[in-house]
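tool=predict chain=A
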Amino acid sequence: MPIQTAAAQDVTAYLDVLPEFQKGLKGVEGFDYLILITHLHRSERESLEVVPFLDDQSHGIFATRSPARPNRLGLSIINLISVDGLTLSFRGCDMLDGTPVLDIKPYVPAFDIREAKRVGWYEQKIQNLPHTRSDDRMSR
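tool=predict ok
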């Protein structure tokens, strides 16, 4: 499984929205990208320090995108392909099948893009993203 949506741009998936939330989808088809807030339901491990997928050194959990989080919340920015009733088709899936989606928000570059000069330890490791996949280190 890709570890970030940026490394999963060709991975297509579907999100089935519950019927009681159908009215909330009004207008969502007008966005190229959506932000999905998810519950990392299969992440069994909870730790304040982890060795993230892109590194072999330990880091504090809040300096990583690790799924072994105290609150088990995930964030994915996905490329919306289409909306068919209650089904969203998208690219950029970095989630396990069956991952509960807690919220959907529109991605708006004017709100969401920030110029960053510092990206911490990722600066030395980001080139490994395209070929790095998750493993079981976060589930134990």
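The CA atoms of residues 124 and 137 lie 21 Å apart. The first strand starts at residue 12 and ends at 16.
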